[in-house]
């Protein structure tokens, strides 16, 4: 009798399938993304100068970043970090995918950055046009082929990234490396910093 | 089939009911439901806001007696003069205007889980479908003889930010070169495990940069080890002479007469250890042992240790149905009692509450903790954790998380200060905007 009741309940119970499937699928993108907000802002729109906004990143860029943080120094695609290496290692590929899809749908919020120097940004604009525009299209607004969204990104974060590229801690794509070297020859060592001021100044 | 236990059966049928309701649009499942949140701190604000973000049809009332909130996190920077107390102050206006949360500036004094009502000071009662309790901690003043809320104007705890923080800052400023400072650190668990050690570090930083390098800060500890210990000691060695006779910081574990048993405000002495060693000090900072906030204690939500046991997938109390406890007040091992942990738990809880109000099963939880400590100029360290639910334990995911590397380059320590400050901006924005 009991067994029959159970069987009929289970036969009706799409619920069983749904809940089991939900559990094996892991946490939702929204819940996973919520764990990032304490450092990267509500829905990935950062209001702090060192933590980048991650809203609006493409799925590919987000995934590549997280996978890069999981890698060891020397591995291809390795991303140096202070804390993200420790955090990224806590997530599975499926979880990273769910987060990536969530953040890709969020709006990149641009705010006025007091640290931006207008004169540097103006010079940076010219350098951007000459050396960066081909990959960082639309003033760095488009995230294509892992270029990430640079327009309106936080200056301090962009400067940390530039430092890492400069020091070799983070490997540059080949084309970028030759462009930045050429820019250095024309504009001097602080050329890259000026470009960062330009991106950070974008509304 | 025969392996299905009675409990599984109940779970299965519950799931079936939930799904069965899909397709009956005349049943407005979440609409008009009432959630009351007690406590407008790191947990309560987030639970209130994220419920509204997930389901704007749910009516959310936040009960918080204080008009303003002072963050405990980064309050040690007030001691050095690095930041003002005002920079830690936040209000509830935007939660009301941006998210439609009703803020009630009253004290919650009782919970009746049977009638599903919260009593407020003044006699008013609020009905709820779901109640989230995020009261933070209550200090156990009776744990150390001679310490009580009557002497905190002379011997501050400064473990709740506000006037106590300002008082400790003033006392630190008035310490003369060569003065002795005692910080009493409690046994685990307590709010902000690295906090006492960050406090000692930043006090030393202040003294060192104000020609008072002959001062000594003695941390008297009720335990044998502490959070990020190796990293703290590395920083102290580099900046404050730790390990030398002239060290500005001395740490006494419980086994070296560290556990404070008595304090005397009149003579400014601290008694510690089994031998009742007495130390005279110019400044005494007692960080007392703690328990869940008062409302949790008086409502029967706590266990014999004074913390609130919960179902870790939802944070529903195991003591009262439809009552949830998050943040410092709940037992959520292996997560520490930190603001970030409270934030993370609040989001899991909010999602579970929203699901339950719709008759759905709770979603799969995921949790993170991130906590920075600042030890001195350009010297930041951190601990991070990513957690999953395994059985009834919030388990750290293997090979992830942990502390900043030892002997890291100066540039990395400096960056961690920048990230700590960015963390602050983002977490308070997540809470209050």
Which of globular, elongated, flat, extended, rod-shaped describes the shape of chain B?
Answer: globular
Indicate the low-confidence ranges of chain A by residue numbers. 1-21
Rg of chain B, please?
23 Å
Strand content of chain A: under 5%
Helices and strands in order, then pairings?
The complex is a heterodimer of chains A (203) and B (433).
Chain A (H helix, E strand, L loop, with lengths): L1 H11 L1 H12 L3 H6 L2 H4 L18 H12 L13 H5 L4 H12 L13 H15 L4 H4 L14 H13 L6 H14 L3 H11 L2
Helix pairs in contact in A: 5-7, 8-11, 8-12, 10-12
Chain B lengths: L5 H16 L12 E5 L5 H11 L4 E5 L4 E3 L5 H5 L8 E3 L1 H7 L2 E3 L3 E5 L4 E4 L4 E3 L2 E4 L3 E3 L23 H12 L5 E6 L9 H14 L7 E6 L7 H12 L8 E4 L7 E5 L4 E4 L4 E4 L2 E4 L3 E3 L1 H5 L9 E2 L13 E3 L4 E2 L7 H19 L9 E10 L2 E12 L2 E4 L5 E2 L6 H23 L1
Parallel strand pairs in B: 1-2, 1-9, 2-5, 9-20, 11-12, 11-17, 12-13, 19-21
Antiparallel strand pairs in B: 3-4, 6-7, 7-8, 10-18, 14-15, 15-16, 22-23, 23-24, 23-25
Written account of the structure:
The complex is a heterodimer of chains A (203) and B (433). The termini of chain A are far apart. By secondary structure, chain A is mostly helical. Helix content of chain A is 59%, strand content 0%. Chain B has helices spanning 6-21, 44-54, 76-80, 93-99, 163-174, 195-208, 229-240, 294-298, 339-357, 410-432; strands spanning 34-38, 59-63, 68-70, 89-91, 102-104, 108-112, 117-120, 125-127, 130-133, 137-139, 180-185, 216-221, 249-252, 260-264, 269-272, 277-280, 283-286, 290-292, 308-309, 323-325, 330-331, 367-376, 379-390, 393-396, 402-403. Chain B contains ten helices and 25 strands. Chain B is α/β, with parallel strands linked by helices. In chain B, strand 14 and strand 15 form a beta hairpin. Residues 1-28 of chain B have low confidence and may be disordered. In chain B, helix 2 (44-54) runs parallel beside helix 9 and helix 6 packs parallel to helix 7. Chains A and B meet through helix 1, helix 2, helix 3, helix 4 and helix 6 of A and helix 1, helix 9, strand 22, strand 23 and helix 10 of B.
